Amino acid sequence: MLTAGRELWGDHGWAAVTMRGVCARANLNDRYFYESFPDVEALLLAVYDEALQELVARTERAMTEAPATPEAQLRAVIGAFVHTLADDPRGARIGLVDPAGSAALEQRRRATYHVCAELSLAAVKPYLRPGADERKLRWDALFSLGGLGELVLTWLTGSLEATAEEIVEHLVTVVLRVGIPHLRELRET
Question: Where are the transmembrane segments (predicted)?
């Protein structure tokens, strides 16, 4: 049912995901839906979480393969994010476009941004300069994540002419600019 929900949502938007539509797409009797999910919103949250888990897994793989410097790690994370969404338009729609309009999905999206910001903070902690203001670093992380998502969304919808690599390099440059005041060592040597 998750696959059917993802296909419907990715192709037509979350509002097109109905119990009957999911069951028809999955070739299942309607009763199976409620054996797995209490309502459509629960299915949508499960689909969102699954798409997020795939993105996180790909990002973590990229980070383990990258050199252990702030810039290389950042490039790996942003590259994985951009390429994962470019390779999976359905996942991009689920993660970036469609949460608006559903209170539960919008709340999950916001919570996801905060979790990503906290993960970012944990990743850069070894590189913080003495006396770095972690509160402002958290603000900058949220700012960067929001801008990153919006730029990638604009690019994926065809409103911005660029290659994936141009998007990655630009985002790395912008996020590095935001991070400079907080980090003691930034560039690879």
Answer: none
CA dist 43 → 38, 82, 130, 145 (Å): 8, 26, 45, 26
Rounded to whole angstroms, how far apart are CA atoms 99 and 85?
15
- For residue 149, count other CB atoms closer than 10 A to its CB: 18
Q: Is the pLDDT of residue 75 over 60?
A: yes
CA distance 185 to 189: 10
Domains of the chain as residue ranges with CATH: 40-182 (1.10.357.10)
Regarding pTM above 0.90, the answer is no
Phi and psi of 87, rounded to 5°?
A: -75, -20
Residue 183, strand partner residues: 128
CA 18-81-165 angle, 5° bins: 130
pLDDT digits (tens, 9 = 90+) for 24-37: 999 999 889 999 99
